[in-house]
Design brief:
The protein has 122 residues and is of the alpha+beta class. Helices cover 16% and strands 32% of the residues. It contains three helices and six strands, in the order ββββαββαα. Strands 1, 2, 3 and 4 form a four-stranded antiparallel beta sheet that branches. It has a two-stranded antiparallel ribbon with strand order 5-6. The longest helix is centred in the C-terminal third of the chain and has 9 residues. It is elongated, with a radius of gyration of 19 Å.
């Protein structure tokens, strides 16, 4: 299973990125018993700008926008995620609850997204 980091600023490109990592195993079967030897870990950095390019280009009205959160509820894409100070020591974390204006439904929206469920509000 892939593990994703929180958003951070890449030291080389200075872009906001997330990193996905996954262990690599050599799996063998000997006399019906499965054995696995960990060979290492592979990883990939994905720039948030590249993710943003993949989002649909729909007009969501005058005040609408797209956003994305990670499995912990931290924002990946959001108009309010714009770090002002370059600091390689700290992750760029913004909880969805802090990114949005006060709304009675935002905790429910966050929980539904983390749980990967669908829903709608009218």
């Amino acid at each position: 299973k892939i593990k994703w980091t929180n958003v951070y600023q890449d030291a080389l490109s200075l872009e906001l990125v997330i990193t996905g990592t996954m262990p690599v195993f050599n799996i063998t079967v000997d006399n019906g018993q499965q054995n696995q030897l960990m060979l290492g870990v592979m990883g990939i950095d994905v720039a948030l700008d590249d993710i943003k390019k993949l989002t649909p280009r729909y007009n969501l009205g005058g005040n609408g926008y797209f956003f994305a959160i990670d499995p912990n509820g931290y924002v990946l894409l959001h108009p309010n995620l714009q770090p002002k100070i370059i600091n390689f020591q700290e992750l760029v974390t913004l909880d969805f609850l802090d990114a949005e204006l006060e709304d009675e439904n935002k905790e429910w929206i966050r929980r539904i997204m983390i749980d990967r469920k669908s829903g709608n509000i009218t």
